[in-house]
Amino acid sequence: MPLRINVRMLLATGLIVLLTACCLLFVAVHSAAAGTPVEKKLSFTCPFPLIGLQKLEAVIKADFEVPTAPGGTLTTSGLTITVTVPDKAARGLNLVGATTVEGTAAAGVTLVNGDANPFPVRIPLNVAKTDLPSSGSFSTVATGSVPTVTLAKPGKTTLTVGDFTTRLTPKKADGSFTGIGAFTSDCTLDPGQDAVLLSFDLGGAPAGRHYAVAGKTAVKALGATAPLTGTFDLSATSSTVFSGGPVFDKAHTDFRLYGFVPGVADLEFVAEGPQGGDLIGTGFVARPRFTTVLPLVTLLGMPVSSGPGCRTSSPSTAELRTGDGFTMAGGGTLTGAYALAPLTGCGAFTPYLSTFVQGEGNTFDLVLTPRKP
């Protein structure tokens, strides 16, 4: 008699694992469109002691949001996996006194984005607490939060099912464990099925982006800050490189030499040569190259230099990085530093003015807001 009871307990254990093994799937779909609800049925096999290999089918539902260009994100919402449990399992669980079953799971999928190396993704799931009937079939439902993934490469992008593991706990009516306790089992996708969960072609480069610029620049040696406005246009030349950069309006700053001599200065940042940078994740690094022109400088209300000839003797190159939360579609912060070379062409006061302008530690603090071209 004890041996017969142990066999029943193992049978119940095997059936429980089998029932929820498929609850570990990521959403299965081909060529999903953004915002498209999807539904697919797949079968899996689980090996169990004494009862051997068992098969089960699961219905998977979810919504995909697919990016239109590299640098965008792949998101999934509404993930549910429903498994219909046969009467045989309910009767087996009743034999060990179980009235509910619940647990967790972990599914593995492999992401391949363009020519990038395969990237494994682990998806945690929760198997909801489910009441067990005294007889007849019943359904279990698993849900989970699928991590958002940034797709940086162009080309074919796929998600393919891999291994998965489940850990389940049947319980009695008073919440205590049954004789079989909590248990873990591994399952595999049945052969002959398409293991690709998601497949689509990602465009070769992001669309051109156009931003309005607002912010400030600080000239460290002068101890002054100048408000900035302008535009920033970029056009991707590949999946990782763009051309374009900031174009600033003429800026104006008030300053005090030695803390008490009042002065004013106009600033212009004139682009030198091709502009561009690198696309990184959801943002970018820009490396604008420019000459700084001081068309007007006054001290105590008297001009000490005027005209476009007053400028840095060699161009500057800034490294401007987008901040946390920046997206190509929504914009965000852009900051960086630059150095200023000695001045030239400022007349008799050139050496004097240079000492208050040249040097490192100058900064840009900008905010980019999307605009129509």
Automatic annotation (TrEMBL):
Protein's name in the database: DUF6801 domain-containing protein
Q: Which residues form the DUF6801 domain?
A: 43-197
Cross-referenced Pfam families, in alphabetical order? DUF6801
This protein's species is Amycolatopsis regifaucium
InterPro entries per UniProt: DUF6801 (IPR046542)
Q: Which branch of life, at top level?
A: Bacteria
